[in-house]
Structures are given as C-alpha cells and as structure tokens.
Structure to design on (100 residues):
C-alpha cells in the first residue's frame, strides 16, 4: 500500500530544481537527498583521496557522506537541507572548496 494513501497526505505542487545542470522534479517538504533519490540519483559526492562515490549513509545528519553543493554553498548535508524551488544542486568533489 502507498504510504500517502494510508495517511491521506496530499503533497503540494511539484517544482523544479537543477542537479548538475539537469532539471529534476521535487516536492515541498523533501530534503535534497529525498529529491535526488526520487529522481534515481544515489551518489552526489566523491571522496577526497580515492574519488569514490558517496550518497546517503545514515540519513539523519550524523555522518558526512551525503555532502553536496547547494546554490554555491559546499558541504551541505543533503539529508538535512530542505529542497526549495529553483535550487541549483551540484555533485561535490572532495572537500567542495573549489566549487566556486
């Protein structure tokens, strides 16, 4: 059964955000991580040393695996940041300090 049917929830109107230059649909109340997962994106950061892909690990803001650049600000925890209409989200490479 669909959880939305169980609770009677009715999400607000979908809006668009950009992820690495491509448009994605998002819903009010979603985090950046939830919007990316819904779009089928499971990795949006690479590690400093080996460049290994990372995405959500803990999902509650304790670890730092889900770091992403949002609207030019690096090191944002995707599992905590609410997605907003027009957000520009970018894959974060390493520390994100060169993301300009």
């Amino acid at each position: 059964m669909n959880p939305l049917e169980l609770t009677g929830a009715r999400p607000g109107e979908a809006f668009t955000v950009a992820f690495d230059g491509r448009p994605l649909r998002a819903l009010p109340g979603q985090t950046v991580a939830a919007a990316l997962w819904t779009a089928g994106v499971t990795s949006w950061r690479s590690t400093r040393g080996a460049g290994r892909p990372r995405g959500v690990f803990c999902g509650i803001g304790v670890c730092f695996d889900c770091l992403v650049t949002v609207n030019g600000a690096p090191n944002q925890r995707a599992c905590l940041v609410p997605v907003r209409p027009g957000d520009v989200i970018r894959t974060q490479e390493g520390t994100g300090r060169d993301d300009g």
Summary: The first strand starts at residue 15 and ends at 19.
